[in-house]
Amino acid sequence: MDLDQLTALRAGAGTAALATADQLVDTDQLAAASALRAAGIAPDLAAAALTQARLRHRAAGKFGSDAAAMLFTRAGLEQATRRVVADRRALRLRDAGVRTLIDLGSGLGADSLAAARAGIQVHAVEADPVTAAVARHNVEALGLAERVTVRCADATTVKLDGYDAAFCDPARRSGAAGRRVFDPRAYSPPWDFVTSLIDRVPVVALKVAPGIDHALIPAGAEAEWVSVGGDLVEAAFWCGPVARAPRRASVLTDARVAELTGDGVSAAPVTGVGPYLFDPDPAVVRAHLVAEFATTVGGGLADERIAYVYADAPTATPFAQRFAVTDVLPFSLKRLRALLRERGVGRVEIRKRGSALTPETLRKQLKLNGDGSASLALTRIGDDPFVLICQPVPR
């Protein structure tokens, strides 16, 4: 989408085209295009409207009902913060006394919108003209223009005086194809500028990719990893007085938010395989808080390199999935297949830590046929591969 297309979508004809396209989002591409043309919509406008309708449909998972009023770019939607995460971050900033925020690299405006909803005055800065214009539309469409201003500018050139806090979510995609960037030095704005904010603004929150190297965590910062519904979605570095712990794992579900904190360097005891296996949430694993989690369930590891935790009781926890261990076998495809067939197991859930086996390949090799089900945990203990046959313990 370019600025001309954006302008056309926001005009009367564009609004009507979007309304029609929204009704065709589940229709085949060619059939939808034909329907839009039959409605008298120009081909270029029809294509832009249909693209936006499909982006809105995808965006509903992140933005909820707000997505129906918003506009998007593909790259912007990919990197945009989920509303549940952005709202939670905004409340943390507000509760820390933040009243004015500069959002550097605001993208489509997800975090700016959340901060505004929390009562914070926001100045959003976005280098890409189209993305900035889309963010401006979103602010206006959601009725937050009095609390958010959007400026198209290079974040590295903006004055930072007078703001209580800075938030930065550097772009992690580059080129026309939107290829993912893994080296923080290739972020936009660049990593050295991003980390320089810590010495220039009282409170700084940085959103980064969840796979970021722990060696890049700024001194004195709190590093938080966030999962939503079991999916690891982001990491954030909290700098300044808002930092409360060296490491934090935040696990968000429909029902609750659970937080686990620790130093990120403690080692869990090695106790061997127990009757119950706990597979920690990815936020716990990435935050290096497996030792702290093990303490909460009175458990330990079978191998110090593998993040499966074992305990004597199925302690209820929001930080892991629980399984009752029925069998512990040195891995043998022939023996495993025979045992599962003997028990009438036809469906298996396969998870792995420390195993080179591919779950889908193993599932095909097992060639199971039965009415029963089981969970398999592929792992290793020492240098030896093992498979644990388990049954899930309901939450």
From TrEMBL:
Pfam families assigned: Methyltransf_25, Thump_like
InterPro entries documented for this protein: Methyltransf_25 (IPR041698), SAM-dependent_MTases_sf (IPR029063), Thump-like (IPR041497)
MF annotations from Gene Ontology: methyltransferase activity
Domain spans labelled Methyltransferase: 102-168
Superkingdom to which the source organism belongs: Bacteria
Chain ranges of the THUMP-like domain: 320-392
Gene3D superfamilies, alphabetized: Vaccinia Virus protein VP39 (3.40.50.150)
Keywords: Methyltransferase, Transferase
GO BP, sorted A to Z: methylation
Protein name as annotated: Class I SAM-dependent methyltransferase
